[in-house]
Write a structure and sequence with these properties.
Blueprint lengths: L2 H5 L6 H8 L6 H9 L8 H12 L13 H4 L7 H23 L7 H12 L6 E7 L5 E9 L9 H10 L4 E7 L9 H16 L4 E7 L4 E3 L7
Parallel strand pairs: 3-4
Antiparallel strand pairs: 1-2, 1-3, 4-5
Helix pairs in contact: 3-4, 6-7, 8-9
Length: 229
């Protein structure tokens, strides 16, 4: 038995498991072990993978890597610049895959599908971002614009700027989304007041505000569903 196989005495080699059962039967740590290829003197690749996932947040899986940057990952023993870049590319691939899967079910009249589509883009942000989505008559996306970036608990928005942009883009409908970094998508009083003002102006310019969706941590609140529009 090789030294490498001895190291994995209690764990089947992820590469061998991949060949025997396929990638879908590998854990996130095993997938990372294959990508990392080597560990450290103290840790095998799979142990290093488990440590990375633990630091990233076990419940988030590979998408938890999205919270790191290259410098932070390089603080983990055994992770140099090359491996750090590889790990962040894995996170980006996971995010884009989730986004592409959600796109097939996207229906702007169904808030759940909209929330799913934008979930991975917004739920990892550490500050609030307000996204304006403009649609044409067939409810296809005309543009997506980050209108404001606020603090961890507030965004500053201008109803005039939002509706003015919709007019310039000749949009037929508009939709607002923003994230709550706390993970709780419950609308604040400010969220409700600002949304009401935007709706008033959107009604005046005859570009309906279809919804305002707040993204939390795998949760969302739709103003439309809650009867707040």
């Amino acid at each position: 038995m090789s030294l490498f196989k001895e190291i994995y005495a209690q764990d089947e080699l992820p590469y061998d498991k991949f060949l025997r059962l396929g990638a879908e039967n590998l854990s996130d740590a095993e997938l990372l072990a294959i990508m990392l290829r080597t560990g450290t003197k103290e840790k095998t690749p799979i142990e290093l993978g488990r440590e990375i996932l633990k630091l990233a947040g076990d419940k988030l899986g590979l998408l938890g890597l999205y919270h790191f940057d290259v410098r932070e990952l390089m603080q983990i023993p055994g992770i140099g610049e090359v491996k750090a870049v590889q790990l962040l590319c894995i996170a980006e691939i996971a995010k884009r895959t989730a986004h592409m899967k959600a796109k097939t079910d996207l229906r702007f009249e169904k808030p759940e599908t909209v929330a799913t589509y934008y979930m991975e883009r917004l739920r990892h942000k550490t500050a609030e971002q307000l996204l304006l989505v403009l649609l044409d008559n067939r409810k296809n996306i005309v543009s997506e614009t980050v209108i404001s970036v606020g603090t961890a608990n507030a965004t500053l928005v201008s109803p005039r700027e939002i509706c003015g942009r919709a007019l310039r883009m000749d949009a037929a409908y508009m939709l607002l989304l923003h994230n709550h970094p706390s993970g709780n998508p419950t609308p604040s009083r400010q969220d409700i007041l600002v949304t009401q003002k935007i709706k008033e102006v959107s009604d005046l310019v005859e570009i309906p505000l279809l919804d305002h969706i707040i993204i939390g941590d795998n949760r969302y609140t739709s103003f439309n569903e809650k009867g707040l529009l």
